[in-house]
């Protein structure tokens, strides 16, 4: 039988104490209450702060539970925050690949476009931030769907003859995404367009969205119609860079 | 051969960043560290210059490590910085004398009023292109020399050095007290009020007016040109450029010709219009400033509209009021309502900058009713940046005689789509964001890369510029006019808040 994790037990105890103290508690209060060293308590508080469960008052002396703690089921990362963190890396991906770049996240069973970078050819393009895409028919969607079993769409609408409409096939496709760590799209949403996307993992490994590029099949795929390995590498590196920024600080 | 990069060091108001760029001007890595904002008294803002140098010395290697590169792959360092923030340090020990006094600091209120005397705030504008306000360095230097016992005498003996942040960094990169180079560039020098805007040299008349001994001043160099070879942090790498952050952004947006303009949205926001080699004097509250100087070529100039409080209003909303957790969340909150509900926030935290230049103004929230919610206030915070931009664009158009047809934007706030759309609506022009929002750093990298031959010429750099996003105007003209009129009425209510008898020395 696997053992229990002591630091999680301690974190739970800290949370219980904070929940019972409307005015918040200091590091020393918590240390005394739990018989723990100040540095230990401090480390627990810092982690809980980073994941958004506790907050500090302005002086920094007192900690209390954050209101986000009571709403754990809701998305923990603000979409506009995701855009702010992604913007540098999404730009870089667009200029490196020469393709359109989008960042998306799952909202009520659809992929919401959180950020959109134009194809860097200065042609006329319209921002589609805020619009939604069908998750089963797009690489961006599959890259998030693969990690969210509660969000499988019930009806799989066909957008082209290549759209996956069979739930079993979609399940297999998502398993492939999980094992490879990236997702593809081949004319499944729009004829002549292909796409590559990778999940963005926030703190603790939670998938908070995906980043991907989209372009004409002949540019996205090689002569054997496989998604180009160099583009896959770029997309994955971009997702990792955004994830690093998300974990870095808050 | 291993890929080569240029390292931009962006020493900003809130943080110091190091960003590496590749030959196509693409961002490849970023490392950043915030430093403390010290508020010893109301209206005072200070930074610890040693903390800043420590941060710079950490972010540079961190950015290189991020991509697993070797320091030898960095061909040049380009330095860019928060402007006007002033520091004195001891030439022998290299230690700062007190804290750096930040551009937002208003402690020189009274001094500035006295210096203006009967001649008015534009007393020195012919010589230096700037009005007398608390914003620029010279009054601050005078204040520092006058408020530390014995310091003026030491300064006159040549024991004290003055610099804005780029000078402090160049000095430290080149050994500090052990042979460090004491230099600045024309763009930063043009913000002191001590440099003659035509000759690009320190002007004795200005030095005398502000009581500043020449011995403390750094040597003025072109913005792009090898300053020296670093001995610290990246030993052996040449410092190829130094320029103020806003001028760097103009450069990064490749606004190399007269008539080209950009606006950078960060802590404050700054619209700069390239005026070529011509010195244009504003009649509408714009500043005349040096845009850049490349090697021994003639300098280029710019007109500037400075807005002191834009992103920092969002920070105040977050930290001061605790309404949001991160700056970006303001967009989420603002989208919970349809409009501002009639509320306007004029953030005259340190007086009003362009085009008003009213040091005695202080902020107001106008149009408050019981109807106003957090969401409306969030809108009003964002809209304040839009309205301030409109005021500046109007003034700039009046000065230049040509109306702006599109606005090139960059900086952290351009991640805010609601704000970008509001800007397009309010200005009634296209708003365009380039592929690199960290344009300040890109400009510093460009200027440094040019100096060491990493990039051959300006034309090549232009071809790196691409549109990453664009917002089109949709607002009904009648609504625009009403909104602007409301804002202007709110601005009137900020004036004359600080009365002279309230001011303390
Ligand atoms: N999504 C957003 N919406 C509104 N404001 C934002 C958003 N993201 C960042 N900001 C604001 O933009 C500013 C940060 O942008 P940026 O990093 O370009 O500023 P900066 O002026 O270069 O910083 P520094 O003061 O260190 O030089 C902050 O004041 C922050 O409040
Ligand atoms: Mg900056």
TrEMBL record, chain A:
What keyword terms does UniProt attach to this protein? DNA-binding, Glycerol metabolism, Transcription, Transcription regulation
PROSITE patterns according to UniProt: HTH_ICLR, ICLR_ED
The segment(s) forming the HTH iclR-type domain are 5-67
Q: Which GO terms describe its molecular function?
A: DNA binding; DNA-binding transcription factor activity
Q: Which InterPro entries match?
A: GAF-like_dom_sf, HTH_MetabolicPath_Reg, Tscrpt_reg_IclR_C, Tscrpt_reg_IclR_N, WH-like_DNA-bd_sf, WH_DNA-bd_sf
Specify the IclR-ED domain's residue ranges.
Answer: 68-248
GO BP terms: namely: glycerol metabolic process; negative regulation of DNA-templated transcription
Tell me, what does this protein do in biology? May be an activator protein for the gylABX operon.
**How is this protein named in the record?**
Glycerol operon regulatory protein
Q: Which organism is it from?
A: Kribbella sindirgiensis
| Lineage of the organism | Bacteria, Bacillati, Actinomycetota, Actinomycetes, Propionibacteriales
TrEMBL record, chain B:
Q: Which GO terms describe its cellular component?
A: cytosol
- Domain Carbohydrate kinase FGGY C-terminal, residue spans: 261-451
Q: Where along this sequence does the record place binding of glycerol?
A: 83-84, 135, 245-246
Q: What's its catalytic activity?
A: glycerol + ATP = sn-glycerol 3-phosphate + ADP + H(+)
Per the record, the GO terms for biological process are: glycerol catabolic process; glycerol-3-phosphate metabolic process
Briefly describe activity regulation.
Answer: Inhibited by fructose 1,6-bisphosphate (FBP).
Q: Does the keyword Ubl conjugation apply?
A: no
Residues involved in sn-glycerol 3-phosphate binding: 13, 83-84, 135, 245
What is the main EC category here? transferase
CDD domains in the cross-refs: ASKHA_NBD_FGGY_GK
Q: Where is the Carbohydrate kinase FGGY N-terminal domain?
A: 5-252
Pathway-wise, it operates in:
Polyol metabolism; glycerol degradation via glycerol kinase pathway; sn-glycerol 3-phosphate from glycerol: step 1/1
Q: What is its EC number?
A: 2.7.1.30
Q: Where does ATP bind?
A: 13, 15, 267, 311, 315, 412
Task: Check the record and name the InterPro entries matching this protein.
Answer: ATPase_NBD, Carb_kinase_FGGY, Carb_kinase_FGGY_CS, FGGY_C, FGGY_N, Glycerol_kin
Binding sites annotated in the UniProt record for ADP: 13, 17, 267, 311, 412, 416
Q: Does the keyword Repeat apply?
A: no
Which terms does the record give in the GO molecular function aspect?
A: ATP binding; glycerol kinase activity
UniProt-listed HAMAP family: Glycerol_kin (MF_00186)
Homology family: Belongs to the FGGY kinase family.
Function, as annotated, reads: Key enzyme in the regulation of glycerol uptake and metabolism. Catalyzes the phosphorylation of glycerol to yield sn-glycerol 3-phosphate.
Q: Which PANTHER family does this one have?
A: GLYCEROL KINASE, SUGAR KINASE
Protein name, entry field: Glycerol kinase
* Species lineage: Bacteria, Bacillati, Actinomycetota, Actinomycetes, Propionibacteriales
Q: Which gene encodes it?
A: glpK
């Amino acid at each position: 039988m696997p053992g229990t994790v002591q630091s999680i037990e301690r974190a739970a105890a800290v949370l219980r104490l904070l929940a019972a103290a409307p005015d918040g508690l200091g590091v020393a209060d918590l240390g005394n209450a739990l018989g723990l060293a100040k540095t230990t308590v401090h480390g627990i508080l810092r982690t809980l702060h980073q994941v958004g469960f506790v907050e500090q008052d302005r002086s920094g002396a007192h900690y209390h539970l954050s209101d986000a703690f009571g709403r754990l089921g809701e998305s923990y990362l603000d979409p506009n925050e995701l855009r702010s963190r992604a913007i540098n890396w999404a730009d870089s991906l667009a200029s490196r690949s020469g393709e359109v770049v989008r960042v998306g996240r799952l909202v009520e069973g659809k992929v919401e476009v959180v950020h959109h970078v134009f194809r860097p050819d200065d042609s006329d393009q319209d921002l589609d931030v805020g619009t939604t895409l069908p998750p089963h028919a797009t690489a961006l969607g599959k890259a998030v769907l693969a990690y969210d079993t509660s969000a499988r769409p019930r009806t799989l609408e066909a957008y082209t003859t290549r759209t996956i409409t069979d739930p079993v096939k979609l399940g297999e496709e998502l398993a492939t995404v999980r094992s490879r760590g990236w997702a593809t799209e081949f004319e499944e949403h729009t004829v002549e367009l292909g796409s590559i996307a990778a999940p963005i993992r926030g703190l603790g490994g939670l998938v908070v969205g995906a980043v991907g590029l989209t372009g004409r099949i002949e540019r996205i795929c090689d002569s054997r119609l496989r998604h180009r390995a160099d583009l896959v590498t770029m997309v994955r590196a971009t997702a990792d860079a955004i994830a690093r920024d998300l974990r870095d600080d808050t | 051969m291993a890929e080569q990069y240029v390292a931009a060091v962006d020493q900003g108001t809130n943080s110091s960043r190091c960003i590496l760029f590749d030959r196509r001007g693409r961002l490849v890595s970023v490392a950043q560290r915030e430093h403390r904002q010290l508020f010893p008294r109301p209206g005072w803002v200070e930074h610890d210059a040693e903390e800043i140098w420590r941060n710079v010395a950490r972010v540079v290697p961190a950015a290189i490590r991020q991509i697993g590169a070797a320091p030898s792959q960095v061909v040049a360092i380009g330095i860019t910085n928060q402007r006007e923030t002033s520091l004195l340090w001891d030439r022998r020990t290299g230690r700062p004398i007190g804290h750096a006094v930040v551009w937002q600091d208003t402690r020189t209120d009274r001094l500035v009023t006295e210096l203006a005397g009967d001649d008015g705030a534009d007393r020195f504008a012919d010589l230096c292109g700037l009005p007398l306000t608390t914003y620029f360095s010279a009054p601050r230097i005078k204040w520092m020399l006058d408020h530390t016992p014995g310091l003026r005498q030491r300064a006159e003996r040549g024991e004290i050095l003055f610099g804005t942040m780029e000078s402090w960094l160049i000095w430290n990169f080149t050994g500090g007290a052990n042979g460090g180079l004491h230099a600045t560039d024309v763009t930063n020098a043009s913000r002191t009020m001590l440099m003659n805007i035509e000759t690009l040299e320190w002007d004795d008349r200005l030095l005398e007016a502000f009581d500043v001994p020449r011995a403390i001043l750094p040597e003025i160099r072109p913005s792009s040109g090898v300053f020296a070879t670093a001995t610290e942090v990246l030993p052996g790498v040449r410092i190829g450029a130094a320029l103020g952050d806003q001028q760097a952004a103009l450069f990064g947006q490749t606004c190399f010709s007269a008539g080209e303009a950009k606006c950078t949205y960060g802590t404050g926001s700054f619209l700069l219009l390239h005026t070529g080699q011509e010195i244009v004097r504003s009649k509408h509250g714009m500043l005349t400033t040096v845009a850049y100087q490349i090697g021994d070529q003639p300098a280029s100039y710019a007109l500037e509209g400075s807005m002191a409080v834009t992103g920092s209003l969002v920070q105040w909303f977050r930290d001061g009021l605790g309404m949001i957790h991160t700056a970006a969340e303001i967009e989420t909150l603002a989208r919970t309502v349809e409009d501002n509900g009639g509320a306007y926030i004029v953030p005259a935290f340190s007086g009003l900058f362009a085009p008003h230049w009213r040091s005695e103004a202080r902020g107001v929230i106008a149009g408050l009713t019981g109807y106003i919610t957090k969401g409306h206030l969030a809108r009003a915070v964002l809209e304040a940046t839009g309205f301030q931009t409109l005021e500046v664009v109007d003034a700039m158009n009046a000065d230049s005689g040509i109306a702006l047809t599109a606005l090139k934007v960059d900086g952290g706030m351009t991640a805010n789509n609601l704000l970008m759309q509001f800007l397009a609506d309010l200005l009634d022009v296209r708003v365009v964001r380039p592929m690199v929002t960290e344009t300040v750093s890109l400009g510093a990298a460009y200027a440094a890369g040019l100096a060491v031959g990493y990039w051959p010429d300006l034309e090549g750099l232009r071809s790196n510029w691409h549109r990453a996003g664009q917002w089109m105007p949709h607002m009904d003209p009648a609504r625009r006019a009403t909104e602007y009129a409301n804002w202007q009425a709110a601005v009137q209510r900020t004036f004359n808040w600080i009365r002279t008898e309230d001011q303390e020395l």
